Here is the input.
Amino acid sequence: MNRKPKVTGQIHFYITWPFYAALAPAVCTVLGYMRGPKTGTAFLVFTLVYLLVAWNRYRRNQEMAYAELVEFAEDYASAQNKLFRELNIPYALMVSSGRIIWMNEAFREVSGDNSQFTLTIFDMFPKITKDKLPTYYDAVREFTCQYGDRDYRIEICCVDEHGTPTPKSEIKAPREEFYAAYLFDETLLNTYIRKTEEERLVTGLIYIDNYDEVMDDVPENGQSLFAALIDRSVIEYVMNVDGIAKKMGDDKYFIIFKQKYYEQLAKEHFGILEDVKKIQVGNDIGATLSIGLAMHCDTLQQSYEFSRSAIDMALARGGDQVVVKDKDKIRYFGGKTQHTEKGTRVKARVKAEALREFIIGSEKVIIMGHQIADVDVLGSAMGIYRIAVSLGKKVHIVLDDVTASVKPFVRRITSDESYPKDLFVRSREILDKVNDNTVLVIVDTNRPNYTQCPDLIYEVRQVAVLDHHRKGEETVNNAYISYIEPYASSASEMVAEIVQYIDDNIKLKSAEADCLFAGIMLDTNNFMTKAGVRTFEAAAYLKASGADVVRVRKLFREDVESYQAKAETIHAANIYRKSFAIAVFPETQKVESPTIVGAQAANEMLNICGIKASFVLTKYKESIYISARSIDEVNVQLVMERLGGGGHMSTAGAQLRGVSMDNAIKLLEDTLDEMIEGGEI
Here is the structure.
């Protein structure tokens, strides 16, 4: 049964307004009867005639309105249908199962579907799944997909059965869900974007890390040839990617190349690093390069600043590597060789003088190391303490967790009445001791979040950082003094050198010398790893200052529980890929400092034949700590950086939060697999 359309709104008012006008003669009729019957009757007759004429006109106007509305609707629907069919933008209607129930000609050309709508949107674009379709409450959902060789941006919205977007207020459930899909071809746009990106310039700096040392090692008659061979290697390497290399000094180059060649160089892991090492002109020491690159910079000034920042980070991490600064992201390549120890102490003397001025200008000095402090933290802190006290300053050392390895040294210091009672302060109390003339010295770490009290860094006036770990992405910004030397064996070695240059009148106490000596012993595994000439020179100075090797060794002794836990950890170790020892510290073993014992177990496992690197995972305080150790074949610092940690080539670590032990082991194994396949190990 056909139903006439319902006329509402303004059209309805235009048709019915004569009936509203009939109120006037009706009022006149009432007033007429009040004056007399004849007058009232006359007005009544007029009113009835008016209503009869108005009704007749209303019927005729209503029919005309209906006819014109139907004609308009038919024309509109036809125009709309034609518009959708001939629209250049591909448009289709589909149901919740993804089956397309209607498509215009543009969509049909894209899909190539000439059948009876057997195609589904999920077939065309596997990236779109049913659970990703918009709900009634979403306006539009966008997807970026490929179909064939074209790139499309797809907009999908919820509509009613007529293809009209469904307002939230008009939802009536249950009913079939309908969706409209619009396809926007962005292939040309993406092509131009890619070309623009590829044509952008990558700027960089190349430094020869050990230029002076290598030239001293090259025979005098071969030095010119050696320099020329390095120049040729660098320039040809850059020219092969249509770039330009400009020499800026004996050991510095400025380079430019197009960004489209970056992935090629990265895939090859920047082979220039290995090529330069192979240059031999009678030298035993191979040259190493540090490269800093800047990408996706908005201005030339920013590009220069990024490349400078990248090369500084490469040098601070020990050289022989590439650091790529891509806005907020940083990538590392290389860094597989041991750091070259600097024979000169000029830098140590310069930093010592700067630290002296830094402390003299303050009223109070606070010293802080990394969380779960070890003997290296305590030793370097006590060295800085002696410097500050000799300069007449009040000193506090932030120390929260007194681990088993540190406890004997701390007990010795606190039992000595010559040390102030408030020397060691917990992190929750230290902020109350800060004033406007307080400075902070951070030792044995350069990562703010790894310190005992990260908030303290932002409360003090100035900060100095002394560390022997490689720089990572997270570092203390705008430090007044940043003395980071990856070649050093330990922070205690660095501080022992600095003490000698601060003032000739500084005399270490035996307890302080013992702490510094113990710090060096800990990080060098009893002088078996990372111990260079300067390490032994520092140890000799400490021995002359009162350090007693026998006394230190006694302080290093372990309790039975820790020794048994270490043995059980090693016994349960799994050998992965015949080269990597992976062990889990047993939670059943209740020791005071499980992370320290885990690190000791990792050191012990390097004594197993065929082991290139060892990893011990310890669950402690809702986190999983990984201690990584190697001798010389594997750079464990690169492995730990993949897991958010860092450290040295042979000693590194990481902390994992929110993962189970099984997942942590799987993550470590996957990282090793990925690095082996990528040639990084």
Remarks:
- Residues 167-175 have pLDDT under 50 and may be disordered.
